[in-house]
Specification:
5 helices; Ubiquitin-like (UB roll); Translation Initiation Factor IF3; about 30% strand; four-stranded mixed sheet
């Protein structure tokens, strides 16, 4: 696949073999039972290395898999509430939210109003304030309470390790209508 007549060749140990004809480098690689791989195509002459390309691809994939093991994908979980929610129902949803924070996921609390409940929007804000107080030890506010039509939503994220040691970042959940 290498079409340029002259290339700079590096052997499998990293030693410089110098500038040589492409055909000569291909023969040298075949004699050793390896492949000739173009490493730096943009320089003149291009740099090619004699190596086992299958083994090289395997090692690259192995590095990618190792880096993915250490990653954590943060999900946004939603908990829907009503302004007239009963105490037990709220406690149940709060336990679930605490589990989400322990799993390092973000939680969106949504208070939904129906019909005449719209006259008591302050109950929704007070409910969200109570939630913020309850979770101040494990989470902080990422997006404060915002009202959009019949919905008030608040997004909280887990505390990072350094914030948890300091005592957490507590923010105010009040927002203007």
């Amino acid at each position: 696949m290498i079409r340029i007549p002259e290339i700079r060749v590096v052997d499998e140990d990293g030693g410089q073999l110098g500038v040589m004809a492409t055909e000569e480098a291909k023969k040298m690689a075949e004699e050793r039972g390896l492949d000739l791989v173009e490493i730096a195509p943009n320089v003149r002459p291009p740099v090619c290395k004699i190596m086992d390309f299958g083994k090289h691809k395997y090692e690259l994939n192995k590095k990618v898999r190792e880096s993915k093991k250490k990653q954590h994908v943060t999900h946004l979980k939603e908990i829907k509430l009503r302004p007239k929610i009963e105490k037990h129902d709220l406690e149940f949803k709060m336990r679930n939210a605490r589990k989400f924070f322990e799993q390092k996921d973000k939680v969106k609390f949504t208070v939904i109003f129906r019909g005449r409940e719209m006259e008591h929007v302050d109950k929704g804000y007070s409910l969200l304030e109570k939630i913020v107080e309850d979770f101040s030890d494990v989470a902080n506010i990422e997006k404060s309470a915002v009202r959009t039509g019949r919905i008030i939503s608040l997004i909280m994220g887990p505390l990072s390790e350094k914030n948890a040691k300091k005592g957490g970042g507590e923010e105010n959940a009040k927002d203007q209508d």
